[in-house]
Design goal:
alpha/beta; six-stranded mixed sheet; two-stranded parallel sheet; 4 helices
Length: 159
Amino acid sequence: MGTRSLTHIIEDKKTLTTMYRQFDGYLSGHGNDLAEFLKDFKVVNGYSGDTTKLANGMGCLTAQLIAHFKKECGNIYIYPPNTKDCWEEYDYTIYLEDNKIKIKVASVYGLKGKADTLFDGTPEKFLGLPEQEKKPLPLFNRVFNHLKQLLTTKIIKNA
């Protein structure tokens, strides 16, 4: 069973694209992969000279991110902006704040039984988190929390 995730790339409060990852979407998988790719990146408006780890706007960063992750058939897919409800367990948001790239990670079904933010900061700070904080819940807990969320949502909608 894969651990699915969605990654939303945001510019000026608008989602440019959403990337779906079918497996290894947990923090120590996709989270580490994202942070490793994004660390030391600079987002600029206009460029010249050395373009290593440089993106000419968030659209350029988005294209580079997709090229980095999409190496073969399957696993990585591009979905319409703001796609939700793909059985994802983790929701990643990449955005720019004070000219710094930030990553926000939320557990869709919650590590505590409810949706919650697990991290919000720079890629470098994410990589500094202890590995213990990046471990996924056991499968039983993840399935239980997902079913609980589905039942709660259905009951509220039908009320």
